[in-house]
Amino acid sequence: MFRNYLLTGIRDLWKFRFFSGINVFGLGISISACLLVIMLIRDAYNYDRFHPEPNRIYRVLTYAQRKGGGTEAYASSPYALSSFMAAQSSSIKEWVPLINRFNGELVLGESRFQFEGLGTHPSFFKTFGFSLEEGNAGDLNQPNVIFLTAGLARKIFPDGNALGQNLVWGGHQQALRVAGVLKEFPGKTHLEFGALTSVETLSASAGADAFGFDKNNWLDYYAGWHFYRLTDQADKSKIEAELNEVAQNRYSGLHLESRDAGYSFKLQPMDKITPGPLLSNSIGRGMPSVLLWFLSILGILIVASAGFNHANISLARAVNRAREIGIRKINGAGRLNIFSQFIVESILVALLSTALGILILQWLIPLFSRLDFLNSMDITLRMDWALYGWYLVFALVVGVLIGVLPAMMISRVAILPSIQKLSGLRILPQVSLRKAIITGQLAMTLVFFFLITTSYLQIRFALDTNFGAGQDYMVNLDLQGQEYLRVKTEMSKLPVVKSIAASSMLMGTYRDSKVDVKTKDTADALGVRDYVVDENFLPAFGLTLLNGKNFEPDPDQQHEKQVLVNESFLRFFNMGDPSEVVGKGIFLDTSLVSIAGVIRDFRFKPADYAIEPLVLRYIPEQFNILHLTLDRSADLQQAVASIRMSWAALDPGRPAQWSFYADDVKATYRSLRDILWIIAFFAALAASITLMGLLGMVTYILSGRRKEIAIRKVVGAGLDKLFWVLSGSFIRWLVLAVLISIPLASLLNNLWLQNYAYRVTWSPLWFVPGLALLTTAVLLIVGLQVLRAALSNPVSSLRNE
Amino acid sequence: MIDLQHIFKWVPVGGARNFLLRDLSLQIGEGEFVSIMGPSGSGKTTLLNVIGMLDHFDEGEYKFLHEEVHKMKEKQRTQLYKQYIGFVFQAYHLIDELTVYENIETPLLYQDVKGSERKALVADMLDRFNIVGKKDLFPNQLSGGQQQLVGIARALIAKPKLILADEPTGNLNSKQGEEIMNIFSELNQQGVTIIQVTHSEKNAGYGSRIIELLDGRIVN
Ligand SMILES: Nc1ncnc2c1ncn2[C@@H]1O[C@H](COP(=O)(O)OP(=O)(O)O)[C@@H](O)[C@H]1O
Ligand SMILES: [Mg+2]
After folding, report:
1. How many separate domains does chain B show?
2. Is the CB of B12 under 6 A from ligand 1?
């Protein structure tokens, strides 16, 4: 029976290969996108599966309630709280702190190695599935030890004798003894580290401040992540309640961070971290589940669209196959037999399409691997055998789903009309259904086009309206700890360098810091964004001083004396007119400085931020970056080469770290660009599927009118009328699609544009590119098919009838 | 076996009714060989389709094996097509996508006959109709007569108790027609009930009874 179905299916597919081709191709490309998403999902579920009891491990999350209302969830939590709780509760078997204050450089002789590490306890190896190649986990109790991952150990000690060697933690001038080397990780993990040290190393020596970590600071919920391994009987919600009770007692008396109103804490299961919710201050990598959902929904939409094409074509063709169905029924086939036959056929189509999808996937993988966000999330796009299993399951599901509707309709066909080829044979209210499908597809395509247009415009807008001028010819040079004046003197000798400014951190990117500011009239200190800049910064970036004076250069200053503030600052602190505030004193943390001048508001953060109060400070020892403004007529390549050469003379040990400012700002919108890219990819799929559906339909309609076309030709009538009638109906659906897609697209658009304080202003013109493209494509398809029909031989069409 | 009482069938034409069958009563017993005759357009095919439950009627009563047909569910009808009735059409109605072998095999598939048994049964049929050499050809590679042989083979393979044949020899030459009529009478002698529509007095002569139709009415 199955063989009989399969044979009919295959022979029928072959006989009508044009329609089958459209079907398989449309499904194939849309399935390839889904296969990619399945690959991503599987990858996401590969994280942290190698720990001994992953379902007993929990992470402490901090929910910080803000004064302005709202709560922000953090992956990190206070060390003091976690350790107190671990000591108090008998349900907690192990407690693992992971302190994020162990990174920078490791120095061995003349060589330096960048690293990211964590401070932890010996419990690390009991709780997690990592193990040691050499050394003793107990040494994680000792101060001044370091455990290297296999990779880092290989890099630093290529000849393999790492254990017992001494390294210096650069910057802190701290000697560390290599007390252990880890084995290669047994699997993927969201924990990202190159080295481990003991919490003692971070807290014992040199006073807490040296590392920015204090064991006893209950308020610091940024410095570390904390994991509990619970006993088998432990009740998670009970521990959460206890945790919050402790917190209630402890925090009530404390003077909280300026923006915070209070904290609560939750336990997050280890296996819900990746894929998991988006959290602030996340450790390491892994795909957040919202992104997986987003991609899955896109994938499902696309496959659904292609599935509708399949249903559409199957139903249209069912008229031709009705005779076969009628004969089968006369020969004893029941509805269920016919239904199964058509399901088998749609599964056959789905399998063929999946095979094609797997081929296309081989081409998609390198394309997607280039996306920054996949790299930054440590996502590997790789085929393996288990994936083929999942793909098979997927193909079967898709086959059944796309087949159900046509199979149901077709199995209902009555015998007599189908074998008598009566014109009255009705399979379903086809026309209205098909209209709805094609209109839906057109609307979806338009929504995609619309989203692309807006995100493209938003990126351009954000780049255009971003901070500062002259970024194109601005090179950022990282001082890498070199003395500011020395580098500046050396660089200013280059003829290509027109001027040099300095700052602590790149404006216009997501990097920022805050300082607590208090004025005469404010009771509490309030956090304000601060950047350290030199006296050349304002002119270099074309920033306007409204009142007062720029900084006086004073490289040897002992104490910070003066600051510049922006207009928003004055409004925020109710300080009145710019002319009145120059010379007034304010407190930064605890030191008193005076306002030297007021600058006009400008966008110093990416476009998703509104303009906020800003303090510009002058502290020469905090200059980290030089901004070199280049001669506009200079050859950029040569200019950069000369900068690198000068740097090499200054610091032979390390290569120059430089970048164009424009690129740094562009990189800020990388995630937006990635999303644009992904939407564009899905839009291309949606568009091709829609157009293929159209192609199938036009061809089908025309094949039904072959006789009419032939007669028209024989009597010498043109086919332009036919063209207009056909295109007319498609254009009508397109208009309907526009009406549907405008509100839908606007809704979706608002959803993501909301995140941007500065966004492009809405314009009906946003619809024009997508609409123009689609209209042209529709007319082209109809036109070409009508032309093809017109060129066919009229006599042969007539004779065939 | 077949009991038609005062059957009317009509199609609405404008406001009026165009009668295809009028007040038609007919009984056919098991083992009969009935020929339906009459001029073109007299309602022979319509009657045969009503008997075969492929078409509905508008008035009257029809009992098939003592069951009221208009109360039958689709499932019961499917069951009858599977095991009881074999159809032969003037237009053959073979499945274009299947070979001769596969076409003949099809009814057995819906009866869940085992593979080995199927093979034997189909081989028997091919042998009996002398079309072994054609078994891997598709219908459009056969002549009309050959196609009709395949159609009959397919109708017979499930060993039906009733054969409904609508001008089975209409497109065949006289020698082929004679061959088919011989098969029918042979089957009839084995107890199979046969109802055929035919224009040929000679073919009608193979049967035991002739029903003459005119304008949807029985005239003899
Ligand atoms: N479904 C139908 N609708 C309208 N007229 C029909 C229908 N079926 C048959 N007829 C007409 O009924 C008459 C009898 O048809 P039919 O039974 O095929 O005659 P026969 O087989 O004797 O030549 C014919 O005139 C035919 O055109
Ligand atoms: Mg007839």
Report:
1. 1
2. no
